[in-house]
Amino acid sequence: MKEATHCQQMDMQWECGRATMQSLGAMLAPVTFLLPDGRDVSPMHIARWQEDIEIGSFPPILHHLRGEWPCVPFGATDTGPLPPRWKSDNTSENHADHSNLHPHGFGSNTHWKLENKTSGAIRAQLDYPDQSPISSLTRRVTGKKGQPGLDITLSVTARRGTSLPIGLHPTFALPATAGAISLHPGTYKDIWTYPGDTGGPCPLETDSHHQTLSAMRTRDGSIINLSRLPLTEPCECLLLLTETDGHFELHNLDEGYKTSLEWNADHFPSVMLWISNRGRQASPWNGQHLALGVEPVCSAFDLGTDISVGTNPLSQAGIRTYQTFEKDQIWTTGYSISVEALD
Questions:
Q1: Which of 44, 102, 169, 197 could lock onto 80 through a cystine, CB 3.0 to 4.6 A?
Q2: Residue ranges of region Disordered (predicted)?
């Protein structure tokens, strides 16, 4: 990969693991946890782009894509064509944050200030541009005392009152072995499929509802199991699990451990699954990218601020798709990533 801008890295270590945060996006990876049986496991994804790719020509979020980071606001730059019921004419300046210029928000594409006053924690801080309704983001990652896990907090300070879609973006590695990762969501109400183009082949019916990952209906009427990844065939799918309980587990059957993600379901009522299964053929993906995003969100998929803050099919179903921030108030949420051996 041809190098883009220099990216600072900061390390932390505690008795049950070690982790690295980079300045770009405050992305967290690699993360290595020490299991009680002495094994080291590293569940987070790190994109490995080909050496000949001019990565600097892509949005900064892709330059060193990896691990976990916050997205304020949460959303893509171009949703492409959508069914009429998903379109919005909502363009209130009160919540506009120039998100079209920054996929998944300014903070996902900018270098943060990093510091670690203690060896077992990292603090990251970022000031947003003056025209943004958001003033600053602060996040802190701390090793769990005596446990293979991390506690993470995100604080958002608003410059003025605003409503935005927000999300967290934990991205986990998928091994080459088909079906080696077993997905175990907590309780939820429904699974919604993406209403537009996912950037690669997705066998699922668009803009449809399902009940279980293990029995997802495809366009040709057959059933596919998305609870075991990766799949043998290339695909690129986005799913939204609604009214979650704030818990999701990934069982690595090859390596015999599970990763647990816990979040505040009042702050992030849905979780978006980004199944990137060698489906995107364009550069820099080149049909080789294997990863699973398990992304707690308060958002209408990744369809951006106007759709999420406006009336949309999710909000009409009673599912909250934006977070309201008050002027000069600090909004804080906490979440965690931890591992343990499988029985």
A1: 197
A2: 80-112
Tell me how far CA of residue 279 lies from CA of 53, 100, 236, in angstroms: 18, 24, 5
* 8 A C-beta contact, residue 268 and residue 224: no
Is the separation of the CB atoms in 288 and 176 below 8 Å?
no
Q: What is the dihedral of CA 7, 330, 272, 32, to 10 degrees?
A: 50
What is the value of pTM for the model shown?
0.96
Do residues 11 and 19 make contact, with C-beta atoms less than 8 angstroms apart? yes
Half-sphere exposure of 282 (CA within 13 A, CB side): 7
Answer yes or no: are the C-beta atoms of 134 and 119 closer than 8 Å: no
Tens digit of each residue's pLDDT (9 = 90 or more) over 123-135: 999 999 999 999 9
Domain ranges in the chain are: 9-341
Rounded CA-CA distance 140/116 in Å is 9
